[in-house]
Design a protein that fits this description.
This protein has 324 residues and is mostly helical. Helix content is 89%, strand content 0%.
Length: 324
């Protein structure tokens, strides 16, 4: 977790809430992976042995386990995750409001009205999204647990195929998650700054539309609104392009690794790999590794995007600490 977000959570006194939520949710993807891998292996072995009558019992057994697993995940989400997310929004907005009310008029004028509104709404949402929104920090943690434990099982099943999977993933992961996306936070922060400017120019249209019309100021105001809108769009487009390139690299890595695993595994059946059922099981765990890598990469993209909001919120909280 980024140190800025960690500091905000600490300031709000919510470390234990988030730690509990992460511990309870982290095993889900891995348990689902184990269930799916063993289910496919079991089905294939039953079909190969001609034990069709046992397929129905196997299906219902795995179906019950799947329902229990998803029921557990939904229960944790409904009872802990949502409440923690709502509490975070409430406490952070209250802290920012208290900060605004405690400032002098001179301090308030250091930021425009649009900037304050953006920090109190959009930036708070981005900060919360960094933690609990789909494909952000929480899902990165879940995917990391799945990646590590699936890797351990794959090493036990077949170290050679594990090595091939890792050698394919590492260079693509570095290219996608380190090289390509490193400027996304910069573009997102610039977009947030332009959004504050956009809000500043929209305010007089709402509050003094008649006066603007009387003094023939429509053209000036609308031109400024257009300029800020284009600035937001340009920065977001730059960030979207980097995200698209990152996704392309992940797709190439996934397909290449899968093809190599099937080619090598097919030639190893009877020696390094017991049979097709075991190869299917191996490909499932390799698929979970790849899914974990891709999920972590997507989460890192989104976390870098939402970090712009957390940094702008922390600027206000840091200013309060400095004054205190």
């Amino acid at each position: 977790m980024n140190h800025t977000v960690r500091k905000i959570i600490k300031d709000l006194g919510m470390q234990k809430d988030f730690a509990l939520m992460m511990v309870l949710r982290s095993p889900f993807d891995f348990l689902s992976a184990v269930l799916n891998a063993n289910m496919l292996e079991s089905f294939i072995r039953l079909v190969e042995r001609g034990e069709g009558e046992s397929l129905s019992w196997a299906f219902w057994r795995f179906f019950i386990f799947t329902m229990l697993l998803f029921g557990y995940n939904v229960s944790i989400w409904a009872t802990i995750s949502i409440k923690t997310d709502m509490m975070f929004h409430k406490r952070l907005r209250r802290k920012l409001m208290d900060s605004m009310l405690a400032r002098t008029e001179q301090d308030m004028e250091k930021l425009s009205a649009g900037d304050w509104i953006t920090r109190l709404n959009s930036d708070v949402d981005k900060t919360a999204d960094y933690i609990t929104c789909p494909l952000n920090f929480m899902h990165a943690m879940i995917a990391t647990v799945n990646l590590i434990l699936s890797s351990v099982i794959l090493i036990i099943l077949n170290p050679k195929l594990f090595s091939v999977a890792v050698l394919v993933m590492i260079p693509f992961f570095i290219l996608s998650s380190v090289v390509i996306i490193r400027k996304i936070p910069y573009y997102r922060k610039r977009a947030q700054e332009s959004h504050a400017g956009y809000t500043n120019w929209m305010e007089p249209i709402v509050e003094a539309g008649d006066a603007i019309t009387i003094f023939d100021g429509e053209e000036i105001v609308m031109r400024k609104v257009e300029e800020e809108s284009l600035a937001i769009m340009r920065q977001n487009v730059k960030a979207h392009k980097l995200t698209a390139w990152s996704s392309l690299v992940n797709i190439i890595s996934g397909n290449l690794g899968y093809i190599l695993l099937l080619l090598m595994g097919n030639s190893m059946i009877g020696s390094g790999v017991k049979d097709f059922a075991e190869l299917t099981k191996i490909t499932q765990y390799r698929g979970q590794m790849m899914m974990g890598v891709m999920c972590v990469n997507s989460c890192m993209n989104n976390m870098k995007t939402n970090l712009s909001g957390a940094e702008r919120v922390d600027e206000v909280l840091n200013a309060d600490s400095a004054r205190g």
